[in-house]
Amino acid sequence: MPRKSAEETTSSVYRGADGFWHARVTMERGHDGERVRKHVRRRTKSELRDAVREVERARDAGMFVWTRDDITLEDWLEHWLETVLPMTARWKTLSTYRSQMRVHVIPVLGRQRLSELRPENLEELYRAMRRQGSSTHVVRAVHRVLRSSLNEAVRRRRLAHNPALVARPPRADQVEVDPLSVEETRRVLAAAGSTRHPVRWSIALALGLRQGEALALMWSDVDLRNGNLRVRRSCQRHTWNHGCEPTADGPSCGHRRGGQCEQREGGGLLLVEPKTKASVRSIVMPPPLVEELRSQRSRVNQLRLSAGEDWEPDLDLVFPTPTGGLIDPARDNAEWGRLIEAAGVRRVRLHDARHTAATLLLLQSVDIRTVMSIMGWTEMATAQRYTHAVDELRRRAAMQMGDLLWSATDSG
């Protein structure tokens, strides 16, 4: 390899009017053929010297990735969230990622240059989030999004190394699920008879469908003859977007929120693809649940007759509103709260009905692979959250082994 000239390797160092020490490190040639220089700034001259040496070593080893603009973390995150990620990510994932980055990351690290981002910067962010009251779950979620975003920056040669691969987020809390007991579950099912759609809660507690999956069920997904149910979609509420023309002062409608725009678009209750590939699944139903669904079919037909011309004919939902539309998840949650109160059991979230179904399956010694198939789980590690059920199965296994190996000896 030919030796580089002094012009190609020299770095200039000076103290700026801002009181910081600055350096311009000569890098490789840009796409236009001109040689470009990397700007480095530090508080002290010794810190600057160390930083320049690090850049020069990386440059000489061909490891330093540099772009002319050397964009900030905020600029990269905005580009990633608005241009790169929408090609592959679901709406709900995008919405969550945008919120996490704009609330927790951009206000703190947004002005940091990508090339100067260090693992210690991320770890200090995580400590600050914990001090401000964020849970370990939230901090680790932010870490995962940053790691994914910076991996893409490396892949696109905006960054040489991903600092999030080195940074250590706080240790994950062991959160064990808190399902309803068998007796509590029976009391809830008994009280559900007075609700608009009693079988809605039977499906939640017996099959463990996610809320969106249950609300999106159509009669074409239900095979009453063979007792099968197919999960193929989910119901979500999306935020409305402005449909009016943007101006320098904001949306031309004059409203801040898209939901207030007269030309709003893209929001409301929508049917979307399930959470994962494993979420698309076929479930064999218990015979009593099949009978409940037969009664539900008659109930829906009565609703259709009562609604007349107001009925929405396109969806053919198992659990419709009085006019045949999608039930709002917020209203569904509120009805679950009233049901729990009417049943006289301790207050639990609607999602805990899914935990209850998984627990009851495990306690009946159903094979774990079968449980995963019914629940739509993608990882075996998910089952480890159900330690209360797993511990009970271990005790049963120990008793069975004892009976097998020692009962005959004892009786002899």
Could you characterize what this model shows?
- This is Site-specific integrase.
- Residues 175-400 form the Tyr recombinase domain.
- GO terms for molecular function: DNA binding.
- Residues 71-154 form the Core-binding (CB) domain.
- This protein has helices at residues 6-9, 45-60, 73-84, 91-109, 119-131, 136-155, 182-191, 198-207, 211-215, 287-307, 329-343, 351-363, 368-375, 387-411, and strands at 11-15, 21-29, 35-42, 222-223, 228-231, 234-238, 246-247, 250-251, 268-272, 281-284.
- With 412 residues, the protein is mostly helical.
- Residues 1-8 have low confidence and may be disordered.
Largest sheet: 3 strands, antiparallel
CATH level 4 superfamily of the largest domain: Intergrase catalytic core
Envelope shape: globular
Compute the separation of the termini in Å. Answer: 86 Å
- What would CATH call the class of the largest domain? Mainly Alpha
pLDDT average, as an integer? Answer: 86
CATH topology descriptor of the largest domain = hpI Integrase, Chain A
Helical percentage: 40-55%
Order of helices and strands: HEEEHHHHHHHHEEEEEEEHHHHH
The CATH architecture designation of the largest domain is Orthogonal Bundle
Low-confidence stretches: 1-8
- Continuous helix count: 14
Give the number of DSSP strands. 10
Gyration radius, to the nearest Å?
Answer: 29 Å
**Widest beta sheet: strand line-up:** 1-2-3
Give the DSSP E fraction (strand runs of 2 or more residues). 5-15%
How many individual domains? 4
* Helix/sheet category: mainly alpha
InterPro entries: CB, DNA_brk_join_enz, Integrase-like_cat_sf, Integrase_catalytic, Integrase_recombinase_N, Integrase_SAM-like_N, Tyrosine_recombinase_XerCD
Protein name: Site-specific integrase
Organism: Phycicoccus flavus
Domain Tyr recombinase: 175-400
